[in-house]
Amino acid sequence: MQKIVIYGNGAMARVLFSYAKHSMQICGFTVDDHCIPDDINSFCNLPLIPFSKVQDQFPPSIYKVIVAVGFREMNELREKKYEEAAEKGYSFARYIHESVIMHDDVHIADNCIILDHVSIHPGCNIGRGVFISSNVNIGHDCVVEPNCWINSGVSIAGGCHIGSGSFFGVNSSAGHGIRMGAQNFIAANTVITKNTNNHEVYLSEPGQLFRLSSKSFLKFSRIFD
């Protein structure tokens, strides 16, 4: 069983630990020294080691790293910590939940985190450091460049090319053959139907408050007739 050190001490690190502890030997956590309060030396009941000293307790010859931080700085922080850990001599693991369906000719790079009930169709290439949450569908022959963040319920149609560091909100989607620029922000429930440029933001209209109460709405709409 792989011996793993997780970089992170926030929600993403806790989520990864909850998933990965059943199939990986998670030995501890590490973050930058200034992110650890003076009176704290553990996280999820495992050692929390300052990043400046991590190689002393968890030598790179024995342990691998997974960087589990969120999409801050449009995913640049995750890449930065990957590079810093690589400079210390670490190689990187990846976490793929056992329920993930990976078809033929799929390549998934290191430092990726893929949660439950994801379907990745034939011919896809997933770059390093990509996070994919639950219940995502990625169509055939897609390229997802490094350090993208794909939230729950996202659907990416076949033949898409997703630029590095891009963010997909919950239940957003991209149509067939779309080419997206780097560091796009696609908000929840937003559908992308044309190619995009770098650093663009796409928002959909939020739900509108209706004048009737929920009980009155059901009564007059006859949904359950």
UniProtKB/TrEMBL annotation:
Residues holding substrate: 70
Coiled coil feature spans: none
Chain ranges of the PglD N-terminal domain: 3-84
Pfam families cross-referenced by the UniProt entry: PglD_N
Matching InterPro entries: AcTrfase_PglD-like, PglD_N, Trans_hexapeptide_repeat, Trimer_LpxA-like_sf
Site positions (Increases basicity of active site His): 141
Active site: 140
Family: Belongs to the transferase hexapeptide repeat family.
Protein name: PglD N-terminal domain-containing protein
Species this chain originates from: Novimethylophilus kurashikiensis
Lineage: Bacteria, Pseudomonadati, Pseudomonadota, Betaproteobacteria, Nitrosomonadales
